[in-house]
Amino acid sequence: MGIRPVEGALARIEELRELIRHHNELYHTLDSPQIPNADFDTMVVELRDLEAANPDLAVHGSPTSDVGGRTLNTFDEVTHTLPMRSLDNAFDLDELRAWAERVTKRLGEVPPAWVCELKFDGLAVSLRYEDGLMVQAATRGDGRNGEDVTANVATIAEIPSALAAGAPPVLEVRGEVYMSKSTFTELNRVREEADEKPFANPRNTAAGSLRQKDPAVTATRDLSFWAYQVGEVVGDGGGTEPTTHHETLRWLGDLGLPVNDRAIRLTDFDDVVTHVLAVEASRHDLDYEIDGVVVKVDDLAIQEELGSTARAPRWAIAYKLPPEERTTRLLEIEVSIGPGGQATPFARLEPVFVGGSTVAAATLHNADQVGIKDVRPGDTVIVRKAGDVIPEVLGPVLSERPEDSVPWEFPTSCPVCGSRLVRPEGEAATFCTDFSCPRQVRGRIEHFASRGAMDIDGFGEARVDLFVTEGLMADVGDIYSLDFDRIAEFDGFGETSVQNLRDAITRSRQRPLGRLLFALRLPHVGTTVADQLAQAFGSVGRLEDACVEEIEAVEGLGPVIASSVHDWMHSKPNAGLLERLRAAGIDPEASVSKTEDAPQVLEGMAVVVTGTLDEMGRDEAKEAITSRGGRSPGSVSAKTTALVVGAGGGSKLARAKQLGVPVLDEAAFARLLETGKLPGQ
C-alpha cells in the first residue's frame, strides 16, 4: 500500500504540471516567457517535493523529468546523437554542499577536483564539425530533438566555420548563444529611435534572433557564443585526448572556439563555495547575463563512473544565483515629483524579495513606458532589481490579468500642489509647472546638501521637511541664512547638534566649483559634466557669460546639454539664486591654467578611465590626465583618444572596441602619462 497522499496534493500536482508545461513551452519553444526563471524554478521544486512525498501520484512524462521544450515546424528537426541533458539546481549553499557530499560518497569518500564555470543566460546549441568543417548547428529542443539553425549560426562571427588542426573527424561542441549587454542596449536604442517597441531582455532577444526565418536578420543582431562541453566524438585528431574537463576547455580554445576565461579548477570544495560567492558579488561587472555557476567534476573518467539520471548528469550541478526578477501584485500606480519638477510614475507593490532585498515599490520611468508596458493596478507584474539598480517593473503577466482591468491614465495635475502637469513637446518626461511646489523645494535642498554635491551633514529628508514646513527655507540659498536660534527651539536640537549643523554649512562654502554646479541641478549635468564645465570656464560668472556655442565646444557636450545649461543660467529665478549664493560667499573658482609641474603631453587628447585601477583611484587618474592638458570625459565616443581599463571595464570597454578606440592597461597608461604616446607610436 502506497503512502496516502496529503490532502489536496493531487489537485495541486495536476495544477503545477499544467502550469510548468505551459511556461516551459513559452520559454523554450516560443521564446516569450511570461514569468521569471526564479518563479518557474519555484514551481518545479514544489512539484518535485509533492511527487516525492506522494509516490502513488507520480506519472510517466511528468514535467519534472523533461528537458527544454518541443520544437516548432519552422526549422527542420535534428535528433541529437547524444541527449543534451539539463542540470539539477542548487538554490543555496547548503544544497550545493549536500550535492558535493553525495558525489564524494559515491566515489568512496575520495574528493574529486572540481571545475566552476559561469552559467550563461542564453540559448543552448550543438555544433557538429566533420573533418574540421561545421556541417550542422541545432538548438537543444527537448534534449532529444532540436531545430536545425545551421544557416543562422553561420552568421555568428565568433563561431569558426573551420577548426584549427588537431580536430577529430567528428566533433560535436555544445555551448551557449547569447547577446552581450552592450549589444542589447545599443539594439534597443536604435529601436526606440525608430519608435519600435524595445526588446525585453538579452536572453529572449538572443533566442528570437537565432530562430529568425531569414539568416540575414540574425546577422544584424551581433550574437556571441561560448563553448563549454563536448558531445559526440568520433576518431581522434592525432594528438593527446583530454582526460579532464578543464583540459577539454583548453583544447576547444586551441581548436579556435570561443571559451570563457572565467572557468577555474579547484581541489577544495570550500574554495568552490568561496568562488561562487565571489561570482555573485561581481556578476554585474560582466558584459553578459549569467544566472548561476555550474560546478562539475573535473575528471572525465569519474564523470563516466557517476553517470546520469534520465534528466541530468550526476557529476554536475547549477548553483542558481539569487533571482533578480520575480512576480508580485501591482497594488497602485502613483506619481512622485522630483527636484526638477519631473513627474515620475512608480508602482506600489505587494512586497517581494528580489535582488537581495525586499521590494515594495518600483519605477515605471515615464508615461510612455507605462503605455508600452501596459501595466495596470491589479496586475501580476514582473519586477527586476539588479544589484544597486533601482527596482523596475518590466511588464505584466497577461494570463493573470483581471477581467475588469482598465488602462492606467497619467494624471493631469500635480499630486503634491495641484498645479498643472505639462509634457513639453518632444520630451518623454512630464513636469509640475510650479517652481515653488513643496516637493520640488524639498528635493532641490536635499540634492544640494547631498554627499556628492555640497556634502552638508544634517540635511536629511526629515530635517529638510521640518525646515521647509516651518518656513525657514524656500530654496537652497536659505541654507546660508538659517535662523539657528529658531532651530535650537525644535525638539531634538541641542546645543551640540545645532553647532554641528552650523559647522557643516560653514565647511560647504569651500566646496570646489564642479561640486557647486552639480549641486545646482543644471539640466543633464551630472558630476562628470559639472567638472568639465568647471575646468572649461573656471567660475559661475564666466559660465553665465558664455554663449551656447562656447558651452557646446566643451569636449563631450552636445547642443542639447549646451542649450539647457545656457537657458538655466539665464532664467530669472536661477539668476536670482546665484546672486544670493554669491552674497553668502559661495563663489568658488577653478583654475583653467595648466599645472606648471606636469608636462603637457596630453594636450588635445580625451582619455576615458573605467573600472578599478591598482595603482591609483579613478579620481586620481582623471587628475593625472587633466593636469597634463588632457580631458577625461565620462563616456567613450568617436573623439576618445584612448580608454584606460581597470577591473570591471564593462560596457565602456565594449563601446571602445566597437569604435576602434585604443584600450590601455595600467602599464600603457603610465607610459601615456609620461610620454603622451599610445602603444605602437
What do you see in this structure?
- By secondary structure, the chain is an alpha+beta fold.
- The strands form 5 sheets. Strands 12, 13, 14, 15, 16, 17 and 18 form a 7-stranded antiparallel beta sheet that branches. A 5-stranded mixed beta sheet has the order 2-11-10-3-9.
- The longest helix has 21 residues.
Spell out the blueprint of helices and strands.
Elements: H1 9-29, H2 37-53, E1 77-79, E2 89-90, H3 93-106, E3 114-120, E4 123-130, E5 133-139, E6 145-147, H4 150-153, E7 170-178, H5 181-193, H6 202-210, H7 215-219, E8 224-234, H8 245-254, E9 264-266, H9 269-282, E10 290-297, H10 300-306, E11 316-320, E12 325-337, E13 342-354, E14 357-363, H11 367-373, E15 380-384, E16 392-396, E17 421-422, E18 430-432, H12 438-449, H13 461-469, H14 484-487, H15 495-508, H16 513-519, H17 527-537, H18 540-545, H19 548-552, H20 559-569, H21 572-583, E19 607-610, H22 618-626, E20 642-645, H23 651-659, E21 663-664, H24 666-675
Parallel strand pairs: 2-11, 19-20, 20-21
Antiparallel strand pairs: 1-6, 3-9, 3-10, 4-5, 4-7, 7-8, 10-11, 12-13, 12-15, 13-14, 13-18, 15-16, 17-18
Short description:
By secondary structure, the chain is of the alpha+beta class. The protein has six domains: 9-66, Orthogonal Bundle (Helix Hairpins), CATH 1.10.287; 78-320, 2-Layer Sandwich (D-amino Acid Aminotransferase, Chain A, domain 1), CATH 3.30.470; 325-430, OB fold (Dihydrolipoamide Acetyltransferase, E2P), CATH 2.40.50; 438-508, Orthogonal Bundle (DNA polymerase, domain 1), CATH 1.10.150.20; 513-583, 5' to 3' exonuclease, C-terminal subdomain (DNA polymerase, domain 1, Orthogonal Bundle); 607-675, 3-Layer(aba) Sandwich (Rossmann fold), CATH 3.40.50. The model is unreliable at 1-5 and 69-73 (pLDDT under 50).
